[in-house]
Every structure is written in structure tokens, then in C-alpha cells.
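Example record for the data management plan.
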Amino acid sequence: MPSQKEIDRRYQNIRSRMQVAGIDALIVCGNQYAGFEGAVFYTSGFEIVHRYVYVLIPLEGEPTLVFPREARWIGDKKKPWVKDQVWPDIPGVWLRDRAVERKWKRAQAPFELVPFDQEFDMARAVKSEEELAEVRDAMEIIVDGFWALVAAYQPGKTEAEIMAPAVERFFARGAGPRMMNILLSGENGEANAYFKVPGLRKVAAGDLLLYSLEITGAGGYWVEFSRPLLQGKPGATTQKMADAYPLAMESARKLMRAGELASNVHRSVADTFAKHGFSLGHLSGHSIGTTMIEYPAIGAKTDVPLEENMIFSLHPQVVDQDGTVCLYTQDTYRIGKTEGECLADVPWKFFTGEETRTSVKAGQRSEVSP
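Corresponding structural encoding:
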């Protein structure tokens, strides 16, 4: 649970932006969809187990948790710091009636619903030291799970069996249901350019596996991480992509600094891959926090200045000209004063299953030894 100082900081940041926008009250929405329940957790401390919840934050006064009546016995209602809680038959009607009762309005209308997504995300984009501690804890958990996955990687097992030890670590260390672990895979050292759920397909030595690990720690802060697994040789196209990947990620990291535009970070990634003859399947990445995908994105049209201690997931998916073969990685970064900080101390390489966390760190030390 965050400290009272941290809770006050959050509300102050949100309300300052509400005031600028002329907003009388903010309705924060969340549901069970993994990765998108976090706004409610961030503003109230309530952990959604099932269904949906609203947090009503007035410009002045105490916030209210609004639950659907059928969710009265779902979730620990004593845990959140927001103690004003209601269970109306129809939450939308209750919210309307509260707006009328408090005479909330905008312009000349009795009241008006207006979008506030970007303002809300920018209010929580810069992380406090308390939040950064939660992010680093989640990063340690996801890397721990990755090494469990590497240890389990063996041809003859199914995609799901290789994934299972990582999920066990994640759940045991507090992620709960807040995880989304999906996969890109394919034969002959190439991965198909579409995500899927790890299933019962048996893995061969020449299969390329790109597990996309996305979880939170107990504090609810999302992190993302991925590295390729392959015991055979990468295909020719995959190898060309792999030659460009470390260059693209490092060029982006150097630009992940205070004052730089998010679009410039994306452009550095896209341009690096373009020089090698490839394009990106989607955006380079996005801000990340208690919600899996937050504003701003790392995209061509996102001319938003970065600020120190923002957290971003950088996950460029590079695809061939036919859109059939891809390579993918994920890293989570902190925006620094002069350059970005990658929060995972794991090199980019094709992992064979023979590596251990200790051996990789020893190899990193030997590379920099005189």
C-alpha cells in the first residue's frame, strides 16, 4: 500500500490537471481485462478480481468507489484507502444523480462527459521514488521468471511446458492474475509475425521462440521483457534482423532522456531497421505503470517531451517485407537526465537453454575486463 504522502501526490497531480481542463469530477474506469484494471488500483488501492469498478474523484472532497451491486462480495473492500463505497443497481445512474446533486457542469450544459485519458496518464507518467521501487521489484520478478523459463527450455517439451516455471515464479512472488504471457514462434529459425497463447505444440531444436513476458509485482506496476530462445541456427532473414536489433535498442536508449521527444526515440528505432531493409510491425513502445499501456506512446506522431523518471516499455517488432517473418524483444526503461536506464541486466542474444544467470553475468564481466 502506498504511503499517505504518495497518495496525496497522486491526487494533487490529477486535480491540478482537472482544474486546468475545467473538470468538476473525474470518473476513473477499470475492469478485469488484464493490464487495464490499473487506473482503479492507482487511484483507490482496490484490486479488481472480477467485473468492473469506477472511482469518482471530485475536484474537491473525498473520492468514492462505485461498484455494481452484484460485485459486493468480490474483492477485499477493506484494503483500499478510499473508504466511501457504494453498490448501486445501475452505477451509471448513480453517477448521473451524483453529478446533478453536486451541480457539476461544463460550459452551459447541466453536465457533460469529456475525454480525459491523456491528461490522466500524463498526471501519473513521472514516477516517484516510492513507485520506482515497485517497478524495480517487478523487474526483478520478471527476470527471475525468465531464467526459470531458460532452464525449462528443451526441445520435445511443449510451448506451454517451457512457459510454466516462469508463471509459477510470477504467481508465487505476487503477480497474481496480473500477467499476460504470449508467444511468437516458428520453425527453421524463424518466427511467424503473429502472437498466440503458448499451447501444446511440441518444440523442435530449430524453432525460434519469442516469449513476451508482461507482469506486475505485488505493487501493481507493469514491466515487460523478452529475449529469443533458439538451439538451432537462425534463418537468414532472422539473422539480418538480429544484426540490427542491438543497434536499434541502444540508439533508442541513448535518446530516452529528459526533454527529448518520444517521436525521436521511435524514429531512431525505425531508421535503424530501415537501413537493414526492415520495417516495424507497430509502435516502438509506450509509457507503462499500473496500467499496461499508458500515454504517451513511442510513435512517429507522439511529439511529447520525455521527463525524468517516466517508465517506458520498448518493444519493436521488426517484420520482413512480406509481413510473415519477425523478430521481437522487450525491455523496460527509466527516462534519465542524459540517457535511458534499461532495468533488466540481461544481454540481447539467442538463448539456448544452457545459460544461467550467474554464467551470463560472469561473461559480461569478462567482456569489460582489461
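Summary line stored alongside the record: The chain has nine helices and 17 strands.
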